[in-house]
Amino acid sequence: MDNTSYIALSRQITLQRELDISANNLANMNTTGYKFEELLINAEPGAPAYNTPIRTPANFAFDNGVGRNFTQGTMNQTGAPLDVALTSEGTFFVVTTPSGTAYTRDGSFTLSGDGTLMTQQGYVVQGDGGAIVLDPKKGEPTISADGIISQMSQGQTERVGRLNVVRIANMSDLSKNGDSTFSLTSNAAALPATNASVRQGFLEASNVNAMSEVTNLVRINRAYASVASVIEQNSQLNRTAVERLGRVA
Q1: Over 60: is that where the pLDDT of 55 sits?
Q2: Global pTM value
């Protein structure tokens, strides 16, 4: 293959990756707290397929990783007492997974058999003193704007615990785990979000714009077809050149 084909192929590879990411965004447009993603592409100088007659490096399309947009999603009222939404960007609930501590914006919580507050995936939601355990016999809990969870006991309001909400200063320190959770990839620490506000009975919707993603899918498919056409035309030129050289010989 020559330089043109190598460069075009590098672009096709990134377009395939873009297609996967955009399709995943659409698939998660109804996932609570999901943040849409996009591929970061750079030009990567590299050695050409041959040095003559091209003496300058060839610029290939380079997959520079996935970027995530952590802007706030809209608030959807559910009325469910264990549904909680964070109203400030950069803040996360703390959960414990089999792999360790993780962070999530998905506040669609539930209770285990013993009353432990958990995510829908079965991860324990952390409070200021560890796991939060509710007593089903005491009725529905109330959750204040600062994350304090209370239940009624003999006519008195009893504090059960407080949701552990933290702030991540640099979003690039987060690595996606799946199940709407993230983990820290560096030595950076999550800081207590003392001024964070939560809303009981609400869930944060995905921030995916469906129309933009559909438009993006069309753009990617057209670009892929265009690059494929360039490869085919270049291949045809090479075949024609070889045939003509063969006749001259």
Answers
A1: no
A2: 0.82
